[in-house]
Every structure is written in C-alpha cells, then in structure tokens.
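Long-time lurker. I teach an intro course on protein structure, and each term I like to show students one example going from raw sequence to a predicted 3D structure in token notation. This year I'd like something fresh instead of my usual example. Would anyone be willing to generate the tokens for the chain below so I can use it in lecture? Attribution to the forum is fine with me.
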Amino acid sequence: MPSHIKTYDGTEDPKDHLQIFTGAARIEKWSNAECCLMFMQTLVGSARIWFNDLHARSVRSFDDLSKGFLANFSQQRRYIKDATMIFQIKQRDDESLREFIERYKKEGLTYVGADEKMRVAGFMNAITSKYLTRDFNKSLPKTLEEALERSEAHIRGEEAVDIKEQRRQRGSEQRRPEGRNPPSREKAMKFTPLTKTPKEILATEEVKQSFRPPRPLPKSKRIENSTQFCEFHEEKGHHTNDCFQLKKGLRRPLSPGSFPTW
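-- Reply from a regular --
Happy to contribute to a lecture. Here you go:
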C-alpha cells in the first residue's frame, strides 16, 4: 500500500479518500479485483463495518464498490459554499481570537470565488475586538496573511499585559499582611455621590466628547465576567455601572465643601 494513502473511518469527505486511492491504483496498475481488495484494507471503524455488512455478490467491480462507498458516506461530503456567504462567519462569544483565527483559516477555504480582498473584509467583519478593528481601519491589511499576522501580534500584546498584571497581583499579595484582605478601590476612595447612574450619564453627548478612550481591560477580567458588557470600554468584562475608570472620571473624591458634579 502506498504510504500516502491513509485509512478512512467514515468521518471525513469520502470523495477525497476515493480520489487519492484511485490515483495510486492507476500508478500501481492494479487490476479490478486488486483495487477492491486493496481498498478494503484502507477502511477502519464504521467504514469497515459498512464493508463487512455488504451482501455477498453485491459488488461485481470496483466501480460498484466506489458508488456504494460514496452513497453510504454522502453526508460527510464537503459542500462548496458561495463566496458572499463568507461574511456570515462570526467570532463566537466564548471563542478566543486565536481559536477563531484557526477556524477562519479552515472555513475560508470552502468558499469558492472569494478573492483576497473579500477574505480580508470577511475576517475584519467577523472579529469582536474593538481595538484590533480600529487598528485595521487605520491601516487596511492588503492580504489575509497580513491581517492574521497583525492579529497574532495583538494576541501576544494582550498576553504580555495579562502576565504583567498577574505578576503585579502576586507581588501585592506577598506584601499584604497575613489574614488581611486588601480594600477595594471603591472602598479606598470615597466619591462624590451621583444623581444618575454612570450608564445614564455616559449616554449624554457632553460626556462622550469629553472622555478619552479607556485603557483596555486585562484578558483575565474579560473572561471572568464574559456575560457583562461595559459601554465605556466597548467590550465585555463588567457592567457599565460598575466601571471604576468611568466612575473615577465622573466623580471627584469628597473633600470639605464639595458638591456633586452630576
């Protein structure tokens, strides 16, 4: 058996397996009977069970065997998709950017007629990272390979920030006296009370124009509270009303004679 012919267990595209086998059979110049016997040796798992269940004398030629093989495993055929459907690929809420990149590279190959610009546009449309999208809009990638390389660099940058944050937290825990919990930033600083919620205040045009873009949230925070969305950060991690950076900007610390800002 030629080494490049792999076994088939019934879970992949049967047409691919059959094409590789028939190509090798022509080179080896196998007879009709030899093709049947050699093909049987490539079947494992559910494919071997199917072959063993064939009725006696039901296969008279390799052509009969090939047709029966394709018909039985037709549900595993890889269907070619229209190029315009590439824009329906989306990064899932529970899917990391690195996981999505691997899925996009595989699924993108099944769309016939999609040129390089369409694949780049489809990838930009699919990702959920606001910061990476802004980076792409400032300088559009010319190829999908360039877009993926810049995405990998973005991932490495996020991981470096997470590692730095973890080291900082471990250092603060080691310096903390045993048996004492650190006060939260909310408790450590007393703020001027607000007359509206931070979310309501943020919705006003005056506030939107006066605030600079916030620092990105660490990846660990986004994963920890992936069901809550912050409209100030424009990403998941916590609720808008619980955003420390937003409340810090809206409210100044209490001091003698101070009054609410909002």
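Some talking points for your students: The chain is about 50% helix and 5% strand. Strands lie at 81-82, 111-112, 229-230, 235-236.
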